[in-house]
Write a structure and sequence with these properties.
Helix content is 27%, strand content 41%. It is built from three helices and 21 strands. The strands form four sheets. It has a six-stranded antiparallel beta barrel. A four-stranded antiparallel beta sheet has the order 8-7-3-10, with no helix packed on it. Helix 2 (113-149) runs antiparallel to helix 3 (155-187). The longest helix has 37 residues, at 113-149. It starts with a helix and ends with a strand. The model is unreliable at 1-36 (pLDDT under 50).
Length: 380
Amino acid sequence: MKPFTIARHRLNKPLAIIVLSVTGVLGGCSHESRIPSQPPRAVRLATVAAPQTSAETLRYSASILPYAQVDLMFRSSGYVTNVRQVRGADGRTRNTGTGDYVEQGLTLAHIRREDLQNQMAQAQAQLDQTTAQHTKADLDFQRAKALYSTQSLTKPDYDQSQAAFKATQAAMDNAKAVLLQTELLLGDADLKAPFSGYILSRNIDLGSLVSPSTNAFTIADISRVKVAFGAPDYVLSRIRLGQELTIQTENDAAPVKGRVTSISPAADTRNRIFAVEVTVSNRDRHLRPGMIASISLGDVPHSSISIPLSAIVPFPSEPDHFAVMVAQDRAGRLVANLRKVQLGTTHDNSVAVEGVQPGERVISLGAQLLKDGDPIQVIP
């Protein structure tokens, strides 16, 4: 019996080793599967409260802009040979410059005319030459038609004469167009004010070499001005085209009235604000471009959901938009869920948003370090 028993134990020993090894491997795999791939990050949450209704005073800061403003440039290159002269406050004459008022059609400067006159003379000579060539081709073609009608001229010779006639006609028309263009350039050697207004800047002097890209003068019409401000979407119902509004400037002058002449059909994608323009008569010219004014639209009730400013993070794929991290329960653990939101007005340390619901929990501390789907752990 003993030899049989010993042999039996020897045969089962390798099997036991294999069983123990497999058990160890399975046990190790089971242990590794319980280790999370990423430890949860410690965050602090804020519960989204119900919307609050408040009366908001609709007073907006506005900028005063010229009714019209253009940059004046010469149509062709050349040397400036004259700049309009005016008498300055010291009694001396000087070049027209910043702050001077000019009437519509007044010549402000001109470039050397001899260059443009030479171009026009060349164009005229080219036109005379092509006209002479066309006259000769016309006579030849008339003769060819008479000979061809009596079958005294072959068809190829007739076609050749006709082609020469048409070619000289096209060359003459082209020369006429070039001459007209040079006449226009000569007329545009004088730089004139397109409307009455004030000179905002002058960038040329006597002897300057200018080109069509040189901004010689900037002129603005301030007989009327535009008062521009931005309004959020919930205020648009209180603004309409033609509406009369009161504008107050910061220089303690008497308020002035103007009418709404423009409402942008689309909001700015960065701040969700609609641009509004009010046109104001400015005959006495006490409103100057660059001034700051304020416009009041009264009080309006406004309902909004607010969350802490610290919960706002940039939206990864769209840098101009924003998002929040919402805490959600997945498979028994909390994870961060990225959600795009639209921002409204800011009050102290909170901001009005659209895109979250009352009762949801947003991450108010630590959101900047998270990615969508990251596990989180709430701290007090």
